[in-house]
Amino acid sequence: MGQRGEPRRVQAYDGELGAAVARAQEGDEAAFAVAYRFVQPGLLGYLRGLVGEDAEDVAAEAWLEIARDLRRFRGDGAGFRGWTATIARHRALDHLRRQKVRPRSTALEQDVLDLPGPHSTHDQVLESLSTQAALTLVAALPRDQAEAVLLRVVVGLDGPSAARVLGKRPGAVRTATYRGLKRLARQLGADGVTDDGPRTLGEST
Prior knowledge:
The protein is mainly alpha-helical. It is built from nine helices and no strands.
Protein backbone atom coordinates (compact mmCIF):
# COMPACT_ATOMS: atom_id res chain seq x y z
CA MET A 1 0.00 0.00 0.00
CA GLY A 2 1.13 3.59 -0.55
CA GLN A 3 1.93 5.74 2.45
CA ARG A 4 -1.41 7.55 2.19
CA GLY A 5 -3.45 4.40 1.69
CA GLU A 6 -3.87 4.35 -2.08
CA PRO A 7 -3.34 0.98 -3.73
CA ARG A 8 0.06 0.91 -5.43
CA ARG A 9 -1.48 -0.58 -8.55
CA VAL A 10 -3.74 2.46 -8.96
CA GLN A 11 -0.82 4.85 -8.51
CA ALA A 12 1.23 2.94 -11.05
CA TYR A 13 -1.54 3.15 -13.64
CA ASP A 14 -2.13 6.91 -13.35
CA GLY A 15 0.46 7.85 -15.97
CA GLU A 16 -0.98 5.46 -18.53
CA LEU A 17 -4.51 6.52 -17.61
CA GLY A 18 -3.66 10.19 -18.12
CA ALA A 19 -2.17 9.46 -21.54
CA ALA A 20 -5.25 7.44 -22.53
CA VAL A 21 -7.57 10.24 -21.44
CA ALA A 22 -5.60 12.79 -23.46
CA ARG A 23 -5.88 10.63 -26.57
CA ALA A 24 -9.58 10.02 -25.91
CA GLN A 25 -10.17 13.76 -25.76
CA GLU A 26 -8.83 13.93 -29.30
CA GLY A 27 -11.40 11.39 -30.44
CA ASP A 28 -9.50 8.13 -30.01
CA GLU A 29 -12.22 5.60 -29.13
CA ALA A 30 -9.72 2.85 -28.32
CA ALA A 31 -8.04 5.16 -25.81
CA PHE A 32 -11.42 5.86 -24.19
CA ALA A 33 -11.89 2.10 -23.81
CA VAL A 34 -8.48 1.91 -22.09
CA ALA A 35 -9.47 4.68 -19.68
CA TYR A 36 -12.75 2.90 -18.99
CA ARG A 37 -10.95 -0.35 -18.14
CA PHE A 38 -8.67 1.48 -15.70
CA VAL A 39 -11.43 3.38 -13.91
CA GLN A 40 -14.53 1.18 -14.05
CA PRO A 41 -13.60 -1.49 -11.44
CA GLY A 42 -12.99 1.04 -8.67
CA LEU A 43 -15.93 3.19 -9.73
CA LEU A 44 -18.24 0.17 -9.70
CA GLY A 45 -17.02 -0.85 -6.24
CA TYR A 46 -17.71 2.67 -4.98
CA LEU A 47 -21.20 2.66 -6.49
CA ARG A 48 -21.99 -0.74 -5.00
CA GLY A 49 -21.44 0.85 -1.60
CA LEU A 50 -23.79 3.68 -2.51
CA VAL A 51 -26.65 1.99 -4.36
CA GLY A 52 -26.11 -1.77 -3.97
CA GLU A 53 -27.42 -3.91 -6.81
CA ASP A 54 -28.20 -0.86 -8.97
CA ALA A 55 -24.50 0.00 -9.27
CA GLU A 56 -24.09 -1.11 -12.88
CA ASP A 57 -27.10 0.93 -14.04
CA VAL A 58 -25.84 4.02 -12.25
CA ALA A 59 -22.33 3.46 -13.61
CA ALA A 60 -23.77 3.34 -17.13
CA GLU A 61 -25.48 6.70 -16.54
CA ALA A 62 -22.25 8.13 -15.17
CA TRP A 63 -20.21 6.97 -18.17
CA LEU A 64 -22.69 8.56 -20.56
CA GLU A 65 -22.07 11.89 -18.81
CA ILE A 66 -18.31 11.26 -18.68
CA ALA A 67 -18.22 10.61 -22.42
CA ARG A 68 -20.37 13.66 -23.15
CA ASP A 69 -18.23 16.04 -21.08
CA LEU A 70 -14.82 14.45 -21.65
CA ARG A 71 -13.41 17.33 -23.70
CA ARG A 72 -14.06 19.71 -20.81
CA PHE A 73 -11.92 17.68 -18.38
CA ARG A 74 -8.55 19.15 -17.44
CA GLY A 75 -6.06 17.15 -15.42
CA ASP A 76 -3.97 14.00 -15.14
CA GLY A 77 -4.85 10.36 -14.48
CA ALA A 78 -5.43 10.87 -10.76
CA GLY A 79 -7.55 13.92 -11.52
CA PHE A 80 -9.61 11.90 -13.98
CA ARG A 81 -10.40 9.30 -11.32
CA GLY A 82 -11.54 12.08 -9.00
CA TRP A 83 -13.63 13.72 -11.72
CA THR A 84 -15.34 10.46 -12.66
CA ALA A 85 -15.99 9.64 -8.99
CA THR A 86 -17.69 13.02 -8.54
CA ILE A 87 -19.94 12.39 -11.54
CA ALA A 88 -20.73 8.86 -10.35
CA ARG A 89 -21.59 10.14 -6.87
CA HIS A 90 -24.00 12.73 -8.28
CA ARG A 91 -25.71 10.11 -10.42
CA ALA A 92 -25.94 7.76 -7.42
CA LEU A 93 -27.53 10.42 -5.23
CA ASP A 94 -29.96 11.26 -8.04
CA HIS A 95 -30.83 7.57 -8.27
CA LEU A 96 -31.44 7.34 -4.54
CA ARG A 97 -33.64 10.42 -4.63
CA ARG A 98 -35.67 8.90 -7.45
CA GLN A 99 -36.05 5.74 -5.40
CA LYS A 100 -36.90 7.84 -2.32
CA VAL A 101 -34.14 6.04 -0.46
CA ARG A 102 -31.56 8.54 0.70
CA PRO A 103 -28.23 7.53 2.21
CA ARG A 104 -28.50 7.61 5.98
CA SER A 105 -27.10 10.89 7.30
CA THR A 106 -24.91 9.64 10.12
CA ALA A 107 -22.62 11.94 12.09
CA LEU A 108 -19.05 10.92 12.87
CA GLU A 109 -18.95 8.56 15.81
CA GLN A 110 -17.81 10.28 18.98
CA ASP A 111 -15.72 7.39 20.20
CA VAL A 112 -12.40 6.70 18.51
CA LEU A 113 -12.06 3.00 17.80
CA ASP A 114 -8.55 2.50 19.17
CA LEU A 115 -7.53 -1.09 18.59
CA PRO A 116 -4.16 -2.52 19.64
CA GLY A 117 -2.02 -4.20 17.04
CA PRO A 118 0.57 -3.52 14.34
CA HIS A 119 -0.07 -1.67 11.08
CA SER A 120 -0.34 -5.03 9.31
CA THR A 121 -3.92 -5.18 10.60
CA HIS A 122 -4.77 -2.24 8.37
CA ASP A 123 -2.89 -3.80 5.47
CA GLN A 124 -4.98 -6.95 5.78
CA VAL A 125 -8.18 -4.89 5.77
CA LEU A 126 -7.12 -2.90 2.72
CA GLU A 127 -6.09 -5.99 0.79
CA SER A 128 -9.52 -7.54 1.50
CA LEU A 129 -11.55 -4.61 0.20
CA SER A 130 -11.56 -5.78 -3.41
CA THR A 131 -13.89 -8.65 -2.56
CA GLN A 132 -17.68 -8.35 -2.74
CA ALA A 133 -18.03 -9.61 0.82
CA ALA A 134 -15.72 -6.87 2.12
CA LEU A 135 -17.60 -4.25 0.11
CA THR A 136 -20.73 -5.43 1.90
CA LEU A 137 -19.02 -4.75 5.23
CA VAL A 138 -17.96 -1.30 4.04
CA ALA A 139 -21.53 -0.51 2.96
CA ALA A 140 -22.69 -1.17 6.52
CA LEU A 141 -20.38 1.51 7.95
CA PRO A 142 -21.74 4.95 8.83
CA ARG A 143 -22.12 6.92 5.61
CA ASP A 144 -19.15 9.29 6.07
CA GLN A 145 -16.81 6.41 6.91
CA ALA A 146 -18.06 4.17 4.08
CA GLU A 147 -17.67 6.83 1.40
CA ALA A 148 -14.23 7.85 2.67
CA VAL A 149 -12.97 4.25 2.69
CA LEU A 150 -14.44 3.51 -0.74
CA LEU A 151 -12.94 6.62 -2.32
CA ARG A 152 -9.53 6.25 -0.68
CA VAL A 153 -9.10 2.49 -1.01
CA VAL A 154 -11.39 1.21 -3.77
CA VAL A 155 -11.27 4.20 -6.15
CA GLY A 156 -7.71 5.02 -5.03
CA LEU A 157 -8.02 8.77 -4.49
CA ASP A 158 -5.67 10.69 -2.22
CA GLY A 159 -7.07 12.62 0.75
CA PRO A 160 -7.51 16.03 -0.94
CA SER A 161 -9.14 14.45 -4.02
CA ALA A 162 -11.57 12.42 -1.90
CA ALA A 163 -12.37 15.56 0.10
CA ARG A 164 -13.22 17.43 -3.13
CA VAL A 165 -15.55 14.64 -4.24
CA LEU A 166 -17.35 14.70 -0.88
CA GLY A 167 -17.25 18.47 -0.41
CA LYS A 168 -15.46 18.10 2.94
CA ARG A 169 -12.19 19.13 4.53
CA PRO A 170 -9.27 16.70 4.00
CA GLY A 171 -8.91 16.32 7.77
CA ALA A 172 -12.50 15.15 8.09
CA VAL A 173 -11.96 12.59 5.32
CA ARG A 174 -8.76 11.32 6.97
CA THR A 175 -10.61 10.93 10.27
CA ALA A 176 -13.53 9.12 8.64
CA THR A 177 -11.16 6.81 6.76
CA TYR A 178 -9.21 6.01 9.92
CA ARG A 179 -12.32 5.22 11.92
CA GLY A 180 -13.83 3.17 9.10
CA LEU A 181 -10.68 1.08 8.74
CA LYS A 182 -10.47 0.55 12.49
CA ARG A 183 -14.06 -0.63 12.54
CA LEU A 184 -13.43 -2.96 9.60
CA ALA A 185 -10.31 -4.33 11.27
CA ARG A 186 -12.38 -5.21 14.33
CA GLN A 187 -15.10 -6.87 12.23
CA LEU A 188 -12.64 -8.85 10.13
CA GLY A 189 -10.66 -9.92 13.16
CA ALA A 190 -13.65 -10.97 15.23
CA ASP A 191 -16.10 -12.30 12.70
CA GLY A 192 -14.30 -12.75 9.38
CA VAL A 193 -15.80 -11.54 6.14
CA THR A 194 -19.34 -12.75 5.53
CA ASP A 195 -20.93 -13.42 2.19
CA ASP A 196 -24.19 -11.54 2.69
CA GLY A 197 -25.70 -9.79 -0.30
CA PRO A 198 -24.94 -6.14 -1.11
CA ARG A 199 -26.65 -3.39 0.84
CA THR A 200 -27.18 0.30 0.27
CA LEU A 201 -24.62 2.60 1.87
CA GLY A 202 -25.11 3.00 5.61
CA GLU A 203 -27.72 0.26 5.91
CA SER A 204 -27.19 -1.95 8.93
CA THR A 205 -28.68 -5.27 9.90
